[in-house]
Amino acid sequence: MLQIQENVSLKNFNTFGIDANARYFTEINHEDDLVELFLDEQWKHLPRLVLGGGSNMLFVADFDGLVIRMNIRGIEHRINHDHVTVEAGAGEVWNELVTYCVNYGFAGMENLSLIPGSVGASPIQNIGAYGVELKDVFHSCRAFEIATGEFKTFLKEECGFGYRESVFKSELKGQYIITQVKFDLSLNANLNLGYGAIQQELEKNNISSPTIKDVSEVVSRIRVSKLPDPSTIGNAGSFFKNPVIGEELFKQVHSQFPEVVNYPAADGGIKLAAGWLIEQCDWKGKVVGNTGTWKNQALVLVNHGGATGSEVYTLSSQIIDSVYTKFGVMLEREVNIIK
């Protein structure tokens, strides 16, 4: 029987550790729970928030609606020659899925190690790290349509994947709840070592012929060295997207700051490292009231204890303003702001 609670604290359900309240809260363990929930008309018309690991959101106020925590579990795989299909429930922890695949020798996800959050949230955000994005390993997802109570399968080409974007964040926002994700992986590794410090770290450890396990371990070490553990200090990982700018603006920035960290992006754009831009504005490791930026990575905003969502949001606005003033580049928040 589906249980719906009232006035539930969300402090333990978001990695920022922000103490916001949900007017109503329920946990979904099976697809049938969603059907049962939305047979009742009152839940269809209330504001709602689907929660996975709570790792990519900032509550700036209490949520006056229904919070739906996805807890559908289970991982299965099928092998056909060199091709592997892996299916995972939306409530699975993302990194536990990556570990499962790496341990079985299924290649493709190793660069996505240690990203916080749940499997169900991964397509919404098109999560990515170290040169690999979710769309590179995504086959399809199964989702519940709230308006009709029907389930639909979305193939990769229907998901509108972009940089930290998908159709579920834009035109279909709030219309579907993802219950399961299917991935295309391989027994033949095609390692992506060209991004960040992966190659450097492998060489440092005298690894000349890396396996996917080596890459996963190296990526995990790099992430741990840069990013704080949410269990000890509240944060949501990278708070801002790496901005993609046009050639003209890049020429202006590069002429003033020749050392600007940049990478080629799709459609001829140039991606800048948001962390580098923020650091040049002297934000790295800065403490502002109960919040601040992480000492090892300026891209990460942290809750030093007792911070409100509004405090964190105000800090992010100050950072956006200072980067724009110095570089003429507008940063965009990657974290979802829940008002």
From TrEMBL:
InterPro entries: FAD-bd_PCMH, FAD-bd_PCMH-like_sf, FAD-bd_PCMH_sub1, FAD-bd_PCMH_sub2, MurB, MurB_C, MurB_C_sf, Oxid_FAD_bind_N. Residues 17-188 form the FAD-binding PCMH-type domain. One of its GO terms (biological process) is cell division. GO terms for cellular component: cytosol. One of its GO terms (molecular function) is FAD binding. PROSITE patterns: FAD_PCMH. The keyword Ligase does not apply. Keywords: Cell cycle, Cell division, Cell shape, Cell wall biogenesis/degradation, Cytoplasm, FAD, Flavoprotein, NADP, Oxidoreductase, Peptidoglycan synthesis. Its cofactor is FAD. The active site is at residues 164, 238, 334. Pathway: Cell wall biogenesis; peptidoglycan biosynthesis. It catalyses: UDP-N-acetyl-alpha-D-muramate + NADP(+) = UDP-N-acetyl-3-O-(1-carboxyvinyl)-alpha-D-glucosamine + NADPH + H(+). The keyword Ribonucleoprotein does not apply. It is an enzyme of class 1 (oxidoreductase). It is found in: Cytoplasm. Cell wall formation. PANTHER family: UDP-N-ACETYLENOLPYRUVOYLGLUCOSAMINE REDUCTASE. Belongs to the MurB family. NCBIfam families: murB (TIGR00179), PRK00046.1 (NF000755), PRK13903.1 (NF010478). This is UDP-N-acetylenolpyruvoylglucosamine reductase. The lineage of its organism: Bacteria, Pseudomonadati, Bacteroidota, Sphingobacteriia, Sphingobacteriales. The gene is murB.
